[in-house]
Structures are given as C-alpha cells and as structure tokens.
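Now for one record:
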Amino acid sequence: MPDTGSAQAESNRDTTVFGERLPLARRYAEHLATSGVERGLIGPREADRVWERHVLNCAVVAALVPDGARLVDVGSGAGLPGIPLALALPAARIVLVEPLARRVEWLREVIADLGVAVEVERGRAEEDVVRRRWEGADVVTSRAVAPLARLAGWCLPLLRPGGHMLAIKGAAAADEVERDTAAVRRLGGGVPRIERCGSGIIDPPSTVVVVERNAGAPVRTTRRRGRA
C-alpha cells in the first residue's frame, strides 16, 4: 500500500523549493531522464535518480543566490545547475555557457519547451567574446566542471567585484579548498569557504565552495591548453 504520508511530505518539500514552478521542474526532470540520456547528456544509470541527485541537488543552491541576480552558469552541460536555479528563482537573469553544439541544441529545445527566460551561449567562460558579453555577473555557478583553482581562473573574470563564484562539489571539496586557496587568492578571489545547502530537503545536503571576487583586485584568466 502506498505511503501517502511520505508522498505528501515529498510534495511539500518540492513545493518549498520550486513553488508554482514545480510542474516545470518535474518536466525538466523528464527531459533529463529521457532525451538527456538518449543524447548522452546524462548517464543511463542516472535516469532513475535525476530528481534528488541532480534537480534538487542544484535547486537548493538558490539559498546562496541574491534575488534578481545576474547569473552565469559555466560548463552547463545538461543545464545543471542553471535550469533548476532558474526554476527556483524566477526573478534571476540566467545564461548557460556550454561549448558543445549537441548540448547547446538540447538545452535550447528544453528551454523552449519549458517556456522560461534563460539564454544559452555556445562558448567557453575564458573566451574573450564570452567575457565581453557576460562579465559583471553577480553569481557564476558550476557543477563538476574543473578543479577549484582552474575554475576560479575561468569564473572570477566574469564576476563583478563583490560577486560570488558558487562551485557545487563532492566529498573532496575540503581537500580542494586546502590545496587551491593560495592559487584562488592569486587569481583575485577571497578565501574559499564551504557551505551546505538543502539540509532537511536532501540528504546529504549539497556541498558548495563559495569564492568572492575581491573588490579592486585584478583577476587573471586561466586559459585551457589544447582542444576539448
């Protein structure tokens, strides 16, 4: 017999995160589990756990994003975390930056289907054209893109002074912070700190490394070597 109490609790939890956009969030999860798998954006083993492992895992990071923020999502891939954040934060102005054409095509199809005001930029964060178009952001996000020091070299130049880089990381976040703090500071960032988002909503909570772009500090862009 179905556990109606548990189902209701989960529904209340999800509504807390997405509000009236919950149906859109569930539709996005369907895209991930179907065409996202078929077109190689999500691994086939992830299809049955996209809601908590991917959608909620990203959406709870909205707690760290100011209302109405300009947000750039770097290396967006399947729209993570950018699309869940757009659904959880209707007032945010969000652009997804992704270099691979097949992923960009899928992202644009999904965004059109959802009917949300999210832009997609094909390119890399460190490219001059991307920086000119999107620099001055309040927040730059990423999820499983690169080690912290390299990520800071791509993301900090896109931020306004005082803006924040939010990097969703895994269990090794503390080790990355210990290893890369000096490099992040040389690149124009403050001391990285770790925040846990979504306690009481997801288990375990999402681990986010937060780096502020120092006001008045020059930032250096890290360039990639070779072709991806």
Summary: The helical segments are 4-18, 22-38, 50-59, 82-88, 101-114, 128-134, 148-155, 173-186. The chain has a mean pLDDT of 92. Strands lie at 70-74, 93-98, 118-122, 137-143, 159-169, 193-197, 206-212. The first strand starts at residue 70 and ends at 74.
